[in-house]
Amino acid sequence: MERQDSTPLLEVRDVTKSFGSVAAVRGCSFGLPPGEVHALVGENGAGKSTIVKMLAGVHRPDTGTLLVDGEPVEFGGPADAMDAGIAVIYQEPTLFGDLSVAENIAMGRQPRGRFGIIDRRRMRRTATELFARLGVHLDPGRPARGLSIADQQIVEIAKAIGGRARILVMDEPTAALSSVEVERLFAVVRALREEGAAVLFISHRFEEITALCDRVTIMRDGAHVSTDPLADLTVEEMVRRMVGRDLDALFPKQDVEPGAVVLEVDGLAREGVFRDVTFEVRAGEIVALAGLVGAGRSEVVQAVFGVDGRDAGTVRVNGKRVRPHSSRAAMAAGMALVPEDRRQQGLVMDLSIQRNVTLPRSGALARFGLLGGGAERREAAHWTERLRTRYGRLADPVRTLSGGNQQKVVLAKWLATAPRVLIVDEPTRGIDVGTKAEVHRLMSALAAEGVAVLMVSSELPEVLGMADRVLVMREGRLVADLPRAEATEESIMLAAMGQEVA
């Protein structure tokens, strides 16, 4: 893969792409020289995914040019892109589960010996050599089924470089990985950079961009904003260019005087998961549950809402005890839960946007047992407008929305119930910085209206920026209750790791 000149391996030159009346990409240009990891960043809807699909051969530019090695190329489909040396590594790889790792890597170019028989020994040897180049250890003979997402991505990368790909496009590759897996993936990417490959890296996580990338291209509303060396940019400047406002606007926290206690949790326990969890949340208060992965935060809020069972403890809303093991009872008491996994737990992906928004209130909206389309549309339109949701038609399936807009639909679905207690589990995970600011604005506005908000978050800036109090969990127990004035990254992490907070 080594190159002796500085001609970009890949160049995107003034490309545009529209879908009907919507301009997804407008005059975007940037280049990837050999031996560079290049970040492509922007809000959801900025045009990043459309760029990726053009590079993958799924879409063709309406105008403008794609160049590989300085020569214009036109892709009639994904096979043409792969033949040009471009490989796309997605969040969730699509390997053949019943085939071995080596067979997946060699798919479409299996080595053959005498009489045209597949040479499986050479196939495994090639896979082993590819893993050695990448600095990882995987068994080429094991079935692909059962591999972690991280290992599946490594197999996809090995398959790409085995097919002589020189340009790798990595679309949110770390979204489902642990910190250890992320660091291993980064080591692989650095090895590819040393060999002279060009890597286009797409991520919402600024800490990953600053740790890995050499240059950054920023997009906003489908247009190219800037391309600069990472060394010339601060995170604050990147945010400002992406969303057109300063980082301070990311946490628009209103000062609210807390009112009466709304949610009381007393002695909550589930064997082997959490124990003796006691806390309260007042009207107008945002309380954050913080802690390390596995501390039991999500399990506690699931039990509070009645999705999961509990062995002991009580939950009260406005002084009235809520029946355990019943999310229906929790809803009747005025509670709402926005789950961490919005696709699996928060939405019915094949139903329309308007039907998803109105699901919890379908009985209240129905007349004589029938749900009228007009009432459903009006309700959905009100809440999607309030949350500034971007969509084509309310009748479109919710799966057609971006991740950030799906998150807004989940929020709209529960806000339509006018909750007294709003529980949000990782409210901004996997969404862009601009949508994060809108979700934070909404949470703050709800608190100002007297809603009690309980938030689970793994992002310390979010916890510090939005919470009036921070409850820290460690190994299934509450170990600290920090008021806003005393909550710092250091104090939270010390408590989460079992150290005494000064």
UniProtKB/TrEMBL annotation:
GO terms for cellular component: plasma membrane. Signal peptide: none annotated. It is a peripheral membrane protein. The keyword Ligase does not apply. Pfam families: ABC_tran (PF00005). Keywords: ATP-binding, Cell membrane, Membrane, Nucleotide-binding, Repeat, Sugar transport, Translocase, Transport. This is D-xylose ABC transporter ATP-binding protein. Residues 10-246, 256-500 form the ABC transporter domain. It is found in: Cell membrane. One of its GO terms (molecular function) is ATP binding.
